[in-house]
Design goal:
Number of strands: 0
Number of helices: 5
Strand content: under 5%
Distance between the termini: 33 Å
Number of domains: 1
Radius of gyration: 17 Å
Order of helices and strands: HHHHH
Shape: globular
Largest sheet: none
Length: 174
């Protein structure tokens, strides 16, 4: 864990790099969905948007840890706007990725939500919405900080398992 004080310039550079990576990944994810949407390779668009979601999740985790003072203590640069934006985009990308996954299953004539990957995808989607909606509605977020942090950690675990299960079901792990 990084605990030494970080300068505003250092944190700003990290935040700028994160912004650039998010924009680039978003462009790549969008292009992959567009390029594969009407093909038998729709799963590629689904997978790339999931990778984009993973990048956003890492951003949410890092900015949340900075905001909470768990890393880069004693900083004066506010990362909350990036944390909020990344959280909103993460939830949006999770919902879109879930819908794309459903579309892939339907287009292949397979039953939906019968696989571990599909059920975990639904779980991540519900958790992401549970995380997002109160954060947007409740003005005094300090009242939900603990549950927000716990649900965030659960999302990390379930999302990680979901990616592993999805890759396993696709035959990437023997």
């Amino acid at each position: 864990m990084i605990t030494e004080p970080a300068s505003q310039g250092t944190i700003r550079r990290y935040v700028t790099i994160l912004y650039l990576l998010i924009v680039l990944a978003g462009i790549i994810a969008t292009e992959s969905v567009v390029a594969t949407f009407s093909t038998s390779s729709q799963w590629i668009g689904h997978a790339v948007t999931a990778i984009f979601g993973l990048l956003l999740l890492v951003t949410v985790i890092l900015t949340g840890a900075i905001q909470g003072g768990r890393i880069f203590r004693e900083n004066t640069f506010q990362v909350y706007p990036l944390h909020r934006a990344a959280s909103i985009w993460f939830s949006t990308v999770v919902v879109v990725t879930f819908i794309l996954g459903l579309r892939v299953m339907v287009s292949h004539g397979e039953p939906i939500l019968r696989s571990g990957h599909g059920i975990l995808g639904l779980t991540v989607t519900v958790l992401a919405l549970i995380q997002l909606v109160p954060s947007l509605i409740i003005a005094k977020r300090s009242s939900i900080r603990t549950i927000h942090r716990i649900v965030g950690y659960v999302i990390v675990v379930v999302f990680s398992i979901q990616i592993y299960v999805g890759l396993s079901e696709a035959g990437f792990f023997l």
